[in-house]
Design brief:
Number of domains of chain B: 1
Shape of chain C: flat
Low-confidence stretches of chain B: none
Number of helices of chain C: 4
Mean pLDDT of chain C: 81
Strand content of chain B: under 5%
Oligomer: heterotrimer
Number of domains of chain C: 2
Strand content of chain C: under 5%
Number of strands of chain C: 0
Distance between the termini of chain B: 56 Å
Helix content of chain B: over 70%
Distance between the termini of chain C: 61 Å
CATH class of chain B: Mainly Alpha
Helix content of chain C: 55-70%
CATH architecture of chain B: Orthogonal Bundle
Structural class of chain B: mainly alpha
CATH topology of chain B: Helix Hairpins
Largest sheet of chain B: none
Largest interface: A-B, 45 and 44 residues
Mean pLDDT of chain B: 86
Order of helices and strands of chain B: HHH
Number of helices of chain B: 3
Shape of chain B: elongated
Radius of gyration of chain B: 19 Å
Structural class of chain C: mainly alpha
Chain lengths: ~500, ~110, ~120
Amino acid sequence: MNIALALSPLLVVALGALLLMLAEAFSPRQGGLALGAATVLFVGAAVAGGVWMYGIERLPEAASLAPWLLLDRFGLFFDMLLCLGGGLAALLAGGYLVEHGIERGEFYVLILFATLGAMILASSGDAVTLFLGLETMSLGAYAMTAFRRASPRAAEGALKYFLLGSFAAAILIYGFALLYGATGHTDLAGIGATAATARTPLLVVGAVLVIVGVAFKVSAVPFHAWTPDAYEGAPTPATTFMAVAVKAGAFALLLRVLLIALGDASWTSWAAGWPPVVATLAVLTMTVANLIAGRQESVKRMLAYSSIAHAGYALVGVTALMRDPTQAGASVLFYLLSYTVSTAGAFGALILCGSHGREAVSYEDLSGLGRRHPAAALAFSLFLLSLAGIPPTAGFFGKWFVFKAAIDGGLYWLAILGFVNSVIGAYYYLRVMVYMYMREPAAGAPVALPMRSGYVTAALLVSALFVLALGLVPTRAIEVAVRAATLGAG
Amino acid sequence: MIPVEHYVLLSSLLFVIGSVGFLVRRNVLVTLMSIEVMLNAANLALVAFNRSRLRHAVEQAAPGPSHTGQVFAFFVIAAEAAEVAVGLAIVLSLYRLRRTVRSDEADLLKN
Amino acid sequence: MIATYAPLFMLLFFAAFLASVFYVAATFLGGQKKPNPGKQAPFECGSESSGGRHLKLSVKFYLTAILFVVFDIEAVFVYPWAIHFRALGWLGLAEMLGFLAVLVVALVYVWRKGALEWET
């Protein structure tokens, strides 16, 4: 029974997904599926929170599922984070799909299954479960990207996402196959134990392939080619889901692999391990994404590049794992939390600004919004400020902890580069606000009208609450992140 | 008895062929097949390594022979099938709209 | 035994090199095309070919085939369980029933969505 309790976040989402799938099949024309999906996910988050409060350590039977599933505080943290992100995406879909005439119940079922995959990914301690979670998550995301069947752009974005995503999965699996050959283990702890003692060419090639595969999934430059296209082609709630849950799941995978399988001192040293590789990825990701994001004419595409840039900031924290895994890991977890609520809010505000099949996509679409619809503009501004990292928002402390972890780890240059990049990044976020508050639409130009939807409003309120709460009193959240990041190996 | 090195050699060749094919070919269906070749290279490596580990364990009379590699290959096969189902559906929907299966003709999304 | 794989990776690079050489060389060496109507015509066992180049197949075939593949592959997980049926005991039976229940839900979904109807 205790095993069921330890597994309960996963079970809630899995059973909810199956029930919702049946409900959708037997009464397809019935509304309320969005509410159902969001309820399942928020209940999942609440259950994960409950298990966290009760203390997963008091459920010793949970260890019997190791190494397949590591039911620890790290996994529970990601359960809460992913359910929150998925739930927000489901709420946004409830408004968006109806407004743009593509309401079909499959979308909510896909969100549930993809979130379940991401939760399994975040809890897995073995290459087999890790692969299953990754595929469950990715397949759902591919299908959601292609959801607008009448749009060539959606099909094209989905195709690029699918091809590069499965290419990455194949590289990852071949990497794990080589690691299995080198160590005789598919579980991360076993790989780590052998990797610590003997470093063979097979091991090194396997590790490199695994890191490349994960870099594709977190869309780090130079493996980011699919991201802007997939994000732009997808319906905006699906974009939200990819930017939030898929990215968080991929970071969970990265942290588990680096901390458990390659967490030995020889692998975390600057001279002979992965830190220089991850640092290079972080610098490239931040810089390239920020430079390209500034040149975009579409706000949606700008947000896509911004989500790549944020992966770069998080990678700064990942690099700092080499010195102090707990503090740096906690900074990455807190960063992901603040990024999740800010990004979900920003995409939600963008969804709010379009209605009746007309989406707000370009900067011009938003001009004069501050005067026409002050509430929508205010919400949008809050999330943009948080993404830019301006206090008192969640994004400020997210960046603060990540750069602090880098400085404490002696990586001054990396922290400085990150800071310079966030200053560059502020430019394109503030540009949106300039358009909203200081420009007027050209005479006679078609302007997008904000939609009225209880779902979208609810999602924005929840995100705004988190953004402000994390920005004003981050202490509680950072305590939670520190406890989650205290990973016992195995 | 064929040594494990030969299998691993074959699997690395398959992996390289698959990845070069993925990068060079522009027909989406061929690209899909290239990905399948890469995944099957991984399967071959997993099964071959598993076999050599097992033989090793039997010779050393080590307890608890493990079949993880083979089980992993099963799961890869199953996930592959689901992946192809989704992939072909995406290709089909692109073909319906654009009348092409060439990835270089899918160029609507640019900066 | 694993440490002896260095030659293998040299071979890996050699294979990649060779593959690229072939791809490049094919454009120089394989490009000599002298088409004539006889060569261009499709070969169909000597008889005149008839009908258009594109034979349109209904998407129903695709749907049925892919559903078959997806459900068929799941049988791969039943075989190992069946072989170790006694060793796995009641827990194994319960787990397999859970697995099959999920598959049944998927089947019911497919059926309700009308994907199994041939005449629509």
